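Course assignment 3, question 2. Fill in each field.
Student: A.L.
Task: Predict the tertiary structure for the chain below.
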Amino acid sequence: MARNSAFNESLEQSIAKLKEDGVYKRLNYIDSPQAARVKMEGRGDVLILSSNNYLGLSNEPEVVRAGIEGLEKYGAGTGSVRFICGTFTIHRELEQALAELVGTEGSLSYVSAWNANEGLTASIVEEGDFVVSDALNHASIIDSIRLAKTITKCTTAVYKHSDLADLKSKLEGARGARRRIIWTDGVFSMEGSLAKLPDILQLAKEFDAIVVVDDSHGTGVMGATGRGVAEHYGVLGDVDVITSTLGKALGGAAGGFVAGPAALCDMLTQRSRPQLFSNALPPTVASSALASVKHLARHPELVRKLHDNARYFRAAIAEAGFKPLPGETPIVPIIVGETASAIKMSDMLLEEGVFVTGFGFPVVPQGEARVRCQLSAAHSREDLDEAIAAFKSVGTKLGLI
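Answer field:
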């Protein structure tokens, strides 16, 4: 008991230090569906500018109804992992639709995109293989590669962010490897930038490498019809393996997937530990995700509106005097410097009725704290103008503009 008391006291002291330094992040509770505007902690009309709900499908009646029907038809959960008795017909229907969406032969769903990434690398690499990763890849990719290195004794390397010369150098040094695998995000979520996918594919061809792209912020977002970063660049079908999420543009509930050759999906079913030891994706989530994929196919205008909103907001916020990181995505990060400044700005924006999250160390490097704005097709032009006015007000008070 004494040890537990000391442990608790240590944790409380650490939390107190975070609060003292102005970097403590409290949770904000929403009391309505995720939409352009929500009810939040007694506030009846908060404009959300920090959500992954890129197409506004979290609250789309057709998607909600599909989830309810899935719940009624299949029950609350699977009660089993996939390889025992947890594979339902809705999983197969969803996986076929996802493969078609991202341009691959097959796909396999997971309970989260983190699990999809985590379970991939160690399932496909062996001793003698080489895995190289972009320096700004998502934490789930980093952990997946670390786990694979521990389990399989493969060799690994990290190349400077989007530095094709450095990537080529790393591949040159691994010519003797049994296989070479290039891992990259499609959209780098903290930067709002895109991987140089055509160049990466060209290097992969030169060095006989496999390309794996995590397109979690690209699926439903990038490309003329939302089929992802590969569609954006005109290379749909050329990427060997794509991982992505169901928890962002595709309804925002939960879940993720790996897409690629049918043989890959079969191998993951046999060997991927998150698949083997976790219950399958709940059928209600699979049902709403499938409805989102179908809705996206029928409504490509949602993607066009998302792109229009992103261009409008990015231009207006720059005209106001801020310096957003350049990019073509609906992620618009505004660098403010220190973590405490980002959190202070976030708090002040909420007082103005706009919710935007401040990100600081260790999520981003020291001194590069930011507020990350994320646009949605659900936003009206009036919503965006209101958000820009709030940014001008808070930016002036903080001396940022």
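Instructor remarks: The longest strand covers residues 331-337. The longest helix spans residues 2-20.
Grade: pending
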